[in-house]
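[job 4471] stage=fold_predict status=RUNNING
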Amino acid sequence: MTAPVSTSSVAVPALSPRLLAFALLTVGLALMLAYLVAFDQGALSRSGMYLHELMHDGRHLLGVPCH
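[job 4471] inference complete, writing structure tokens
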């Protein structure tokens, strides 16, 4: 016994180029943020804390006290 095959089509909404660009930008920024956090925590580098020290020195260069 076989099941009947449906031949009806399903309408798929078109994805606008602007929405696609926004989605790709969001995914790209999220991946970059994940990479930077992993790099800073030592998951991707042996030195670890590189970004933390860079931001720390940047604050001192701007004259913002942090200690």
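[job 4471] summary: Residues 17-40 form the longest helix (24 residues).
[job 4471] exit 0
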